[in-house]
Amino acid sequence: MKVSYNWLSESLDLSAVSPEDLAEQITLTGIEVDSVSEPAKELKQIVVGNVLTADRMEDSDHLNITTVDVGEEDPVQIVCGAPNVKAGQKVVVALPGARLANGMKIKKSKLRGVISNGMICSLDELGFSDSVIPKHSEDGIYVLPQDAETGADALPYLGLDDAFIELDITPNRADALSMRGVAFEAGAILSQTPKFTGVNLNEETSDSIENYINVSVENTDDNSVYKMRVIKDLVVTESPLWLQRKLMHAGIRPIDAVVDVTNYIMLEYGQPLHAFDYDTLDSKDILVRRAKGSETLVTLDGQKRELNQDNLVITNGRVPVALAGVMGGENTHVTAHTKTVALESAVFESSLIRKTAQSLNLRSESSSRFEKGLNRETVQQALDHAAALIASLGNGQVVSGTAQIESEQPVYQKVTTSADKINRSLGTDMTVHDLESIFDRLGFESSVTTELVEVTVPPRRWDITIEADIIEEVARIHGYHKLPSTLPHSESVPGELTYAQKITRYTRHFMESCGLGQAISYALTTTEKAKAFAYSGKEPVELDWPMSEEHKALRQSLVSGLLDNVQYNVARQSKNVSLFEIGRVFNQTDSTLPSETTHVAGVMTGALVENSWQESHVEVDYFAVKGIIDEWFDTLGVREAITFVPVKDYSEMHPGRTAKVFWNEQLIGMVGQLHPSMAKERDLNETVLFEIDMEPFINNEHDTIKFKSIPKYPGTSRDLAFVVEETVLHEEIIKVMHASGGNWLKSVRLFDLYQGENIEDGKKSLAYSLSYLNPDATLKEEEVTKDFEQVKLALTEQFGADIR
Amino acid sequence: MGIEEQLTTVLAKAVIETNAAESVKELEAIRVSYLGKKGEITSVLKGVKDIDPKERPIIGKKANEVRDELTALLSHKKERLEKEALERQLENETIDVTLPGKQVSKGQTHVLTQIMEDIEDLFLGMGYQIIEGNEVESDYYNFERVNLPQNHPARDMQDTFYITPDVLLRTHTSPIQARTLESHDFSKGPLKMISPGKVYRRDTDDATHSHQFHQIEGMVIAENITMADLKGTLELLAKKMFGEDREIRLRPSYFPFTEPSVEVDVSCFKCGGKGCNVCKGTGWIEILGAGMTHPNVLEMSGVDSSKYSGFAFGLGPDRIAMLKYGVDDIRNFYLNDQRFLQQFKRKG
Ligand SMILES: [Zn+2]
After folding, report:
1. Structural domain includes residue B106
2. Which residues of chain A are within 8 Å of residue B137 when distances are taken between CB atoms?
3. Which residue of B157, B160, B227 is the best one to mutate when testing the A interface, meaning the one whose CB has the most A CBs within 10 A?
């Protein structure tokens, strides 16, 4: 809502407050101000001119040479390209030295050798938007009324000496979608009661509305109030300048005096009106009802609309003539030939208007006001005011009486609270007197005692219905800057991260310390990417109405997005990329909501160590990521319960370098190398990755660690080298060693792996160091030897190991 | 030549050799050649048994003196040589201490996580719990339970990604408040919570809009919670995020789930309030929305709104990070360009 400061001054004394100050106060007490503009600050040297002569320039098909009286001794010569310039017009002249909108400067100039001492202005050049300029002035200059004073400052005529405060109105403050609403709001701020000039309605008593209109409403739930007046013997003309400029500055294009009045009244009262050409209604019966499935209506914009049960229509008793609250019909709208106007002022059910406006994509100033609510108290007043104005501008007469259905009366809502409750809610210590004066400023009747505060809210503030609303009114008028600052005082409960949150944070720190940077990717991706690397085989959760294929489905894995990130970086010359992400993945379930599981995933490509003056290049490989998750599992205390199982059938992964990861019997993820052909597709070198479901670890709180005393006796170790088939897995060997190694075998470490010369094809040579320890005594050589021999035996028996 | 003279001559020769020696190894050879089993001095001493017994004590004494003198000389020289050798070695081992060290790689925390954890830690310190909820929610919890029924005009304010007519990607973290309110046992104390997480809006991605972003909402519900408590809490938050000198101001606004509702501005951290490009000349920057929890929200969760009241606030870590670090395109947070991410590596 764009509020004119001058218009507001019609009901309030603003002499002591500048537009900026007023805007600041409005912002701080109620409604956000988007901007304050003062066109006169940009426009200079613009005066009213009287066109004395206007002659087409020789050799030109559009330029005119004019002489214009601008109130100086001698008229000035101005070359003007507008097609509509004529002698005898009063026009807006920018003199040499003038500044126009957008900073354009006017200088003496020559056009085709002819001197031009200024410019005759169009509205566009004065800063008006194309969408508000009257159609007849769109391609030319704007013509002022004949009584404009030659040589005078032209800005007041066009309302450009005004200031405009653009309000950003939240849905609860639709009362401020009208000048009167804003006047009450500004009045409360300035401690003034706005004064509105009354309506002088002279009804033509010899003619009565019954002769013209009979109103009925099918369902008063849809349409609680419907009122209609008739104005007859009209001549439809252009609106006077004062009306045109008010509309233009409010962002509405002037059309003709009838339509302009309906818009003006809507701006003044917030009450949308609709004017019908009475003769085209072809009926005395106005029936408001739901549309039928088969009905259509050609609306004002020339579009044929298919109607249905959800649309409320105004009918002439037979067929729809308007979409209630949204748009009029083409066949019944006011034209230059209209003699009699039927003027509607009504209250339509907001959700119904909203649905219709939405489904037909017809949002307008009117429909949005019906949607957000109306002041029930001024439905009749707005109608009367409009009727009087239309009659006076068109030399017509208002037929006496209003045809109406009025199923409800405006409500003066009583809301009760107490001073104590208000002060306890706000942390203030306002007195009964303080409260009374706030309600006075708001224009609310109130009875205030310490125990009971009873406020009567006028219908113009239909947003206020409960105690909390009253508290808000008090708070904002009192001023939020006056509220004290305190902290909640309640018994202190320690704030603490949950176990899951601690493990999640720990995992982030851990991954970072391993050299991986934290990424945050989009959860919404393409269907294909959502499914990649997930192996669930299920279809991903998809949006009902996505904005693009790019963000359509919820991810089932994190790695998919991380790979995109890695690719993005590599394509930008970052060859070494290590990223991890902790986030949710989504899967369909049998219940309404999908499952959400927290995963951790990482992707690495490029160098682990870069060539430097003393270190030589090391490329990332499978074991780089395997080492990271091994250690992570270890620090989570679950290393023993984790197994890695080779897997060949993940199409995105290298079939010889990928493992499924199990926690006990449960599959929780995978680790491996990206399939070389996938890597090539993405222009990546060897790329390794992992993705692990964190749920088992964040949801299983561990027992406390039990300290084991530091061994007092020395341990001993034995090395064991042997050759086995290359398919025998390290983890299997370790298992066998532990199973056969006796009580004192504490740990096993692989220190060599060799294949190649001197080793038969298909076999590998392994060397392990086995550490023995008896915490309670010094181990005897013979004991260790005996146990060690058992390990050798087991390896030979189970794997055919050839001990070296 | 008498033995005594022999000894003197040998000693003199030994002294010359010792002084000329340049290495520990040479010294050892000298020692062996004079004092070893077959050494010259040892040989001389072996000849003592052949001389006149009367002279033996004198010769014996002289011989011992010569041996001791040479031994001392050798040991002294050895010490000196070793010291010199060490000095040479250290000299040789000298390196350019300004050369780069060995590579250690440390990944950086995402800038949004840094912002969120800072805020989480502030509130943990004030006794709040961190409660996370689902990113996919029901329409009921996301809208109805926070006082946004079907056809409420404010539903226009948030465009929503629906999965089914009843299931959606949450547009704010408020459904967590509703869910926590209905499960919280007020007999065990007040409810003080913050809920950080991802949220989604049906927006076209551009420099200032993202279909995915983050939110942190906070809520305190207890007996006798005032709007002044809200103001005090937010003041603390603003100072924590933007510096000790910051002030806040509350402006009336509208959110369906709070009444009264306010927008909260922080005094501009760049210009201090004089007006600049960051604050668009106003001296103030809008950073969050807040208010007193609407009684309908409490009642719908089964909380007696005549007994309990409280406040709620919500802020966007993405916006905070953009303001704080001058990031001009929100998409940077989700592209994960290392050149972007690594700029926030510094701690403190
Ligand atoms: Zn600033």
Report:
1. no
2. 593
3. B227
Q: Which of A425, A520, A610 sits opposite B112 (nearest CB)?
A: A520
Instruction: Answer whether B107 sits within 8 Å of A580, measured CB to CB.
Output: yes
Give residue-wise pLDDT tens across range B34-80: 888 888 888 877 777 777 778 778 877 888 888 888 899 999 999 99
Residue at B141: amino acid letter = Y
Instruction: Check A471 against B229: CB less than 8 A apart.
Output: no
Q: β-strands A397-400, A203-208: how paired?
A: parallel
Instruction: Answer yes or no: do B226 and A425 touch at CB < 8 A.
Output: yes
**Is some CB atom of chain A closer than 8 A to the CB atom of B110?**
yes
Q: Report CB contact under 8 Å: A521, B235.
A: no
Nearest to A171 among B100, B153, B292 (CB): B153
Residue B136 tokens, joined: 């996919």
**Whether B234 contacts B288, CB under 8 Å:** yes
Centre of ligand 1 to C-alpha B243, Å, is 14
Q: Separation of B291 CA from ligand 1 center, angstroms?
A: 25
Token duo for residue A394: 């068109």
Q: How far apart are CA A367 and CA A375, in angstroms?
A: 15
Q: Can the peptide bond before residue B260 be classed as cis, meaning omega within 30 degrees of 0?
A: yes
* CB-CB neighbours of A405 under 10 Å: 17
Say which of A520, A522, A524 has its CB closest to residue B110: A520
* Phi, psi (rounded to 5 degrees) for A245: -70, -35
Convert the pLDDT of each residue in A442-498 to its tens digit.
999 999 988 899 999 999 999 999 999 999 999 999 999 999 999 988 766 788 999
DSSP H or E segment with residue A660: strand A653-663
Domains plus CATH for chain A?
2-38+163-190 (3.30.56.10), 40-158 (2.40.50.140), 203-406 (3.50.40.10), 413-481 (3.30.56.10), 499-698 (3.30.930.10), 716-803 (3.30.70.380)
**ipTM of the predicted assembly exceeds 0.85:** yes
CA A418 – CA A575 distance, rounded (Å) = 69
CB A170 within 8 A of CB B153: no
Confidence of residue B6 (pLDDT cuts 50, 70, 90): confident
Residues of B in contact with A35 (CB under 8 A): none
* Sequence-ordered list of residues with C-beta below 8 angstroms from that of A30, at least 6 positions apart, any chain: A173, A176, A185, A189, A476, B252
B103 lies in some domain: no
Radius of gyration in angstroms for the set of CA atoms belonging to chain B, rounded to a whole number: 43
Does residue B263 belong to the interface with chain A, where contact is any CB pair within 8 Å?
A: yes
Tally the domains of chain B.
2
CB atoms within 10 A of CB A310: 12
Residues of chain B found within 8 Å of residue A372, distances taken between Cβ atoms: 153
pLDDT tens readout for residues A732-762: 999 999 999 999 999 999 999 999 888 999 9
Is the Cβ pair B250, A513 closer than 8 Å?
A: no
Distance from residue B273's CA to the centre of ligand 1 (Å): 6
Contacts of B338 in chain A (CB under 8 A): 517, 569, 574, 577, 579
Q: Which residues pair with B250 in a beta bridge?
A: B264
Which of A85, A79, A158, A164 lies closest to A123, judged by CA?
Answer: A158
Q: Quick one: which H or E segment has residue A441?
A: helix A432-442
- Cross-chain CB nearest to A547 (options B129, B153, B204): B204
A141 interface with B at CB cutoff 8 Å? no
Is the Cβ–Cβ distance between A418 and A450 less than 8 Å? Answer: yes
Name the pTM for this structure: 0.85
Is the Cβ–Cβ distance between A381 and A421 less than 8 Å?
no
Residue ending a domain, choose from B93, B124, B155: B93
Within 10 A of A421 (CB to CB), how many other CB atoms are there?
17
**In terms of Cα–Cα distance, which of B264, B237, B254, B265 is closest to B294?**
B254
